[in-house]
Structure formats: C-alpha cells, structure tokens
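@channel sequence for tomorrow's demo:
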Amino acid sequence: MRSNRIITSSALVTVAVLCAVTIAVASVTVRGASANGVDSGAPNWLLQGRSQNMTLSTTGKTATMRREIVCLDSDVENAEANPTLTLSGSCDSGNYLFVFQFTSTAVNLGVTIGHLSGFDQTNVNNFGVLICDSANNTIELCTNDPTGTHIPNVTATTTANSVTFTLPRGFPSYPAGTAQQGRGLTYFVITHQSSPITNQPSPLPIALPTVAIH
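structure tokens (generated this afternoon):
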C-alpha cells in the first residue's frame, strides 16, 4: 500500500522544486544467511565483522544492537585476485548488505535504518529478516530460526532512503547461535552505491546507514 506525504513550504520556489516522498508498507522478506556465502568464502563476502553491543534508547524503550557489513556479490576488494588498491576496504560492485541484530524487551518497537544511499524501496528483497538457515554459514550475524517459522509479524515502511521495521509485540526469544551468529532478531538492508553521473559502481566512500529506535 502506498501513499504520498506532501512536503509543504512557505516559499513558492521551494514548493516548485520539492517532490512528494513515496512511502511503501510491506511485510518483510525472510532471507537465509547461506545466500550471502559459506564459511570458507568469508574473506570474499564478510567486509566488516560483527560489532560490539551498542545500546540504543528513546523515551521508555531500549534495545541492544550489533551490526555487520557483507559484500552481496562476494567481492571484498582486498580478497580479489587483482585488487584495486584505492578501493581497499570496499565491495567492488558497490553492492552492500547491512546487517543489524537486536534484542529488546520493549513492545511495539520501531527501528529506522536511514541515510541509505542507492536503496531501491520498490524491491522487497532489499530489506527484511536474516535467518541462520544452513550449517554452511556459521559466521554471520543472523536469527537462529533455521526454517523461519518463528519470525514475528514484522512490517516495513520505506522511503527512498530509509526503511522502518515495526514489531507490534515484544521481541521473541531465540536460542543463541554460534558466537558469530549471535542472538536476537536480525534485519538486513541491501543498497547499491553508484555514481549519479556515470551510473557506474561507486563503492567508496561507503555510505553508512544511521539507526534509531522509536
């Protein structure tokens, strides 16, 4: 379901150049970590390993988050056969999969992933829940629910540069996976960074998303 949020301004010239922001609401995609690669190929797909726990808070709500960055096309520049040194530390194609794992006791917790560069809000495969679906990938952050049967009714609201995940009830309790898989509900967002001039991949500098809860 889509609706337009009209942006108003007192200055007519501003109104002339601003356009409506499209907001889409959808149920989320469930993606298996195995789609991102296997353990033996981690040097090629794991660009930035899991972070330490970070505490996010807003009025009456708190959540613990860890994050990770995956190269969607298994093209970590440093692991390429002939790497481009000036692109070291990037995904060569500019295709990034950002992973965010949360635990919380809050009810009706919303998580907004913002400042997304190269985000296609119309493709529901670009955002959702990441599950640990295979013993072949045990070193990526993911939700330890191999069949995806215990994923709650998460909804997602998107704009051209953000996605907001909303969980109507409390967070479910999942068993811990490996130390690398962690424990909690794990969201993912996929972006494609390209030059606005040439439309060619522009992997650096990486546009890091912002995260906020509400």
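heads up for whoever presents: Helices lie at 12-17, 42-45.
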